[in-house]
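Session log. Operator J.P. requested a structure for one protein chain; no other inputs attached. Running the standard single-chain path with C-alpha cell output.
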Amino acid sequence: MSTSRRGRRTALLSALTVPVVALLLGASTEATAAPAASPLSAREINAVNTDIQANNHAMGSQIRRVEGDQSTPETKAAAQQPQPAAALPNQVAATVAGMDVASYQGNVNWGNWWSQGKRFVWTKATESTSYTNPYFAQQYNGSYNQGFIRGAYHFATPNTSSGAAQATYFVAHGGGWSADGKTLPGALDMEYNPYGATCYGLSKASMTAWIKDFHDTYHAKTGRWPVIYTSTNWWNQCVSGDFSSTAPLWVARYASSAGTLPYNWGYYTVWQYTSSPLDQDTFNGAYDRLQALANG
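Structure written below.
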C-alpha cells in the first residue's frame, strides 16, 4: 500500500462517526460512536470498508476459512477443562478463560466479558507494515482498565517485508511489552495466506528464517520472546524450524481437543478453541501462571 493511500485511509478512519465492519455481538460490543471530525459520504465509508476488508485479517480467520470450525457447545465446555500434555503429565490442574479481538468487534463491552469469566485478551495491533487497528486503544486500554491481563498481536504477511521490519512496526504501534504484571508478550500470528499461496510463496527454510527474524527482533526490542500463534496443519506445511525452547505456543484448533501440536512443542500455552461467536481461548494453567507469563 502506498504512503498516500495509507494516509488517506488513516484520515478517513479518524473521521468515522460509527464503527466500521464491527460485528454486532449482542452484549459483547458497544455501538458507541466516536466524536466525528467531519461527516463522511457513503462513498468514503465504502472505501474504508473495502480497505479494511483487503488489508485487515483477524486472528484465525484464515484457519477457519481453510480448516473449518467444528466447535460445538460440548467442545467449548471441554476446552475449559485441564488437558495435560504428555510432556507434563498430571501437572496442569487449572485453566483460565480468555479471548482475542480485532477491529471487527469495534468498541468492546469489557464489563460484559469480565462478568462471563474472561480474564485475558490479545487484541490485534498491526498487519504487515501498513495496517493498524483503529479500535486498538479502546480494546487494549479498555480491557486493561477492566482488570484483564492483555497483550497485542501482529498478523504476519511474510511476502511483503522482512520479519525484522514487521516486528519493528508492531512494537512501534502497540505491540511492546512492559513489566506491569498485566501486559502479555506480543503474539505473532502465522496462518494461511489470505492473498494467495498457502505459504506466501516461501520455502520451509525461508519461512523459518522469516519467523526467526521477527522473533529475534522482537526480543531485542522488548526483552521478551513473542508468543507464536498458528495451527498445526499450517505450521507443518510451511515451517521447518524449532521455536519451542523460546516461544510459547498458542495453537488454533476448533474441536474437542488441541490435538497434535506443531513440531517439537510438548505442550501449548494457549488454545484458541472456537471462533463463535468470537475467538475464545483457554490458558493452559492456573491464574498465577498467566501472571508469570505477563511478568516474564
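Operator note: The chain is about 35% helix and 15% strand.
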